[in-house]
Design goal:
657 residues; alpha/beta; Rossmann fold; Metallo-beta-lactamase, Chain A; 7-stranded mixed sheet; 19 helices; 26 strands; disordered N terminus; binds zinc ion
Length: 657
Amino acid sequence: MSLMKKLVILVIAVSVWGCGQDQASEPAAPLDTVAEAGINMLPAGWTEIAPGGETTCSDGTPYRFFVRPGEADKLMVFFQGGGACWTRQTCDPAGQPTYTVNIAEGWSPEPFGAFNFENADNPFKDYSVVMAPYCTGDVHIGASDTVYPPLEEGGEPLTVHHQGRANAQAVLDWTYSNVPDPEQVFVTGSSAGAIPSPFYAALIAAHYSEASVAQLGDGAGGYRRMNADARPDEQWGTFDFLNKEAGFETLVPEGFNYEQLYIAAAKANPDILFARYDAAEDAVQKRFLALGGATDVQLMEALLANHADIAAEVSNIRSFVAGGESHTILRRPEFYSYGAQGVGIRDWVAQLANFAAPDDVTCDACVDDTFAGPAMPPAMAQLWRSWEDPKQQYVKPFKIFDNLYYVGIDWVAAYVIDTGDGLILIDSLYGKWVRQLVNNMRQLGLDPADVKYVINTHGHFDHAGGTRLFQEVYGARAVMSAEDWALAAEAPTAPAFYMPVPEQDIVAKDGDVIELGDTRVQMFKTPGHTTGVLSLVYDVHDGDNTYKAITLGGVGLNFSGVERTRMYLDSYARLMSMADDISVSLPNHAAMGGVFERAALLEQRQAGQPHPFVDPAGYQAALATFVANAEAKLVAEQAGTARDPLEELTAVLEGDE
Ligand SMILES: [Zn+2]
């Protein structure tokens, strides 16, 4: 067996991490003329505004922002994050850009954290909200159309519209017209949107001179020094405007860092309450520090030193440093549950938004105490990096049968069945790959809004992580076994495995059928990998031929115990007894059934040749292998010599076997 196959089978199937990645969602109704009406004349929910004028995204596509009506006297202005770029390598959309290049078609803000307005605990549920998306690579403070020369002779130069300042001003102009007289204003942003938030808080406070203003930078407190090659004055044109604004006159390009925005804003505005939230081991901040050339990144030291620098100059600044590797908090579901030192983030932010200065909070067990569960062991972290790498994981979506498509990534499968009357999604990926899944569907001409059911083979994050988005944004029903609904609601075993917990919906029992259009998906409980694995049997069509296909719901042996191993063997004995009817295997990890090898053959297939996925003997042979592996595991479990799944994984990664 190849190493990769072993890894896939060993997959520590546990629960990721959204990484500040925004996922696609339903388009909001576009509206361009509401200036006279005011925000409260808008329909409930998000309205998209296309300001036109000087605004633009980095690639010249139009800029848009989002507004949501609420109480007229309470206003939140939110700046979105999404990386940054300052060189040809980091900016080039054709390479591996380290920022969000434009605003995806149909995107609107996801309903999580402080944007979950249904949650009674949301301190901002009654607020009028203005949300400034980010697509300029300049942390919202660029004012330059910058030409990056080609990397190789003869290449084309690349123009990047670093026009974040103009975009933000369009957002502010609209806000000033349509929310004319707020009493309470909360200015905030996450990640790259946190960086300019003290600057814009100062501008907004100057406009609303009667209002109380508080500010929170979410997840950008560790950028202590500017990178040698990242100069906001050079690449972004920041100093064409920055030191012309009241309060910021003393800033100069030489020695500039982002802490100076806090210091200048806080000095000039002693009535504004400024604040920062960070996680001590924030993996994304560490990555950007390393990308900027910082070696031996000590994020926690940088966070504390930055805060000390600001606090030495001004008293109207507060800081919350939580433990763990998670990046940003404000728009995550954990906004309501996470905290440090017994202080919940939600409560701390609510106090801030009410202009009662909260105490500084700094985590104690900053490495271990984390978003949810312990930090990731090194071996797992290595595997994790490969799972996050688009070069390794991206798979161009493809059609397998007339009614069946592959929309997954390299290491986790996801399939769409087109029933003729709506779509059924089998497994929903996780983290940033959910957005890839949605894009994959659109690329195949399938509308994610047509997904009527998401059937999760089991509750691990890699299969169930996108379910909540399909429920909330696309209105899909979700299906799992009772055991795995419970599993999906458990805290993840590492912060990276975080997923928005899906709302329990349809509870599948053994033999249940989901029927839609011309399709019946029968679900068999085949526990072992988890205690509620569902294996799915349904028809696939190839021209005039119809075949019975199966998606095995849980093959991996990364669990422990004699009883569980017996449970797995019982399930596979049952699957063997059902195998005569089955001629197509569409496993939920592609490597377990040669999905990509067969897809390559399918692409070469000539008229009249057999379909490479129709392979009953291959399916039966695979079952026999899974059983043999499980029997070997049973022996080891009974002898007490079975390694725990992570040890086994570590051994494989270190080449011990
Ligand atoms: Zn699993």
